[in-house]
Amino acid sequence: MDTREDLVPGDTGSWRHYGATTLPKALAAALDAFAERGYDGTSIREVASRAGLSVPGLYHHYPSKQALLVSLTTTVMRELLERSRQALAEAGPTPSEQFDAVVESLLRFHMFRRNQAFVASTEMRSMEPASRAAFVALRDEQQRMLDRIVEEGVAAGEFSTRYPEDASRAVTTMCVAVASWYHPDGPLSPDEIVTRYLAIARCTVGAR
Amino acid sequence: MDTREDLVPGDTGSWRHYGATTLPKALAAALDAFAERGYDGTSIREVASRAGLSVPGLYHHYPSKQALLVSLTTTVMRELLERSRQALAEAGPTPSEQFDAVVESLLRFHMFRRNQAFVASTEMRSMEPASRAAFVALRDEQQRMLDRIVEEGVAAGEFSTRYPEDASRAVTTMCVAVASWYHPDGPLSPDEIVTRYLAIARCTVGAR
DNA sequence: TTTATGACCGAGCGATCGATCGGTCGGTCG
DNA sequence: CGACCGACCGATCGATCGCTCGGTCATAAA
């Protein structure tokens, strides 16, 4: 009944496992800088310095500052969607099980990829229209994944919320916000946060 | 003379009423610009232009770009706290009534003062340490107001959440996030949004 | 050995940044 | 009238911005 399972290395549950980021050093430098000072608050010299490169050295790998941001945000949204899809695919057939899986995936992602997730969500307005549109499309797809589950849960009588779409967005919102306050050295472990927020999220949609 | 009457003590429900903003034109210009492009993405020339002033004309009223941001954020947090306190003071004695009042206050504020609220929450990192600390203190006070209510609600048996503090933060999060998507021309009226989100927030804390 | 290529950098481009200088102008007061 | 003041502005400051030019250097295929 409960979805609590042990971490199994291998195929099953790989969406739960987060290794160190494999970002190229220039992207990693841009990510740290953007997370700290924001896109417009970060100079290309700052990124180059953090990457151990000169400014032309940085431009050898990326054609513009904007390209750094776009590369970061598309990478992060693709990974989130991929992991969520995997979690959903491995979950049981009931809306409750699928809800738990996707919410846990959302939570873990926003803890273990918190900087990427934070930058992506706060720097949307710094993206050029085309890139922003592509990003929003991926984000909406992620949202609709949860929307559909909640809707089906209500139809199946597993969730009792009167406002499925709003509740679904509220759940996404609280999961995304984890990226803005979670810190690995904080008092709560990722597993404990998953436990708590999963319980809260279930209440939010009125799970029986 | 000042004809302000929406903050007169004893005016029951005045925390629900939002007139047009009374911000000086320079601050209003800065607010619009910051909301659209962010603090670092906005030049002092852009603010001056929107305010119908020259750059030195703008500096005649505010000593620095940072002062514009600080003035905006302190104003907005003070108004939020003032309205929330008023809502709480006028609410009934039970945690449920107080919860509803404060959540409704939070929701209305983040709809009718959405630009101010949005800028304040997104541009925290652009504030100098001292100003940021003062802002965070006010924000924490607002958070603790709801924390206390939820805690008392659990103690009184009115709320059933196992994680009062986390649920309280989740509720605040979803209310604050309203500022980032609400639009007056949207399909939902403020009253309808209050109705829906109040129901969702009650579920989140496990209200009976 | 020659040529080609990817990885990088010192120097500097034009533009724009936040901020300031020395004013002008209309009003108020004695 | 003349002294003063708040409100405002054209011009410009030094610094920094994103970005680029013309290279060097190590490696490797031809």
From TrEMBL, chains A, B:
Q: Does the keyword DNA-binding apply?
A: yes
Chain ranges passing through the membrane: none
Going by the UniProt record, its keywords in alphabetical order are: DNA-binding
Tell me the domain of life. Answer: Bacteria
Q: Where is the HTH tetR-type domain?
A: 20-80
Identify this protein by name. Answer: TetR/AcrR family transcriptional regulator
- Ranges of the DNA-binding region feature: 43-62
Question: Is Flavoprotein there in the keyword field?
Answer: no
* Organism name: Rhodococcus chondri
Could you tell me which Gene3D superfamilies the record lists for this protein?
A: Tetracycline Repressor, domain 2 (1.10.357.10)
Pfam families in the record: TetR_C_24 (PF17932), TetR_N (PF00440)
Task: Supply the InterPro entries for this chain.
Answer: Homeodomain-like_sf (IPR009057), HTH-type_TetR-like_transc_reg (IPR050109), HTH_TetR (IPR001647), KstR2_TetR_C (IPR041490), Tet_transcr_reg_TetR-rel_C_sf (IPR036271)
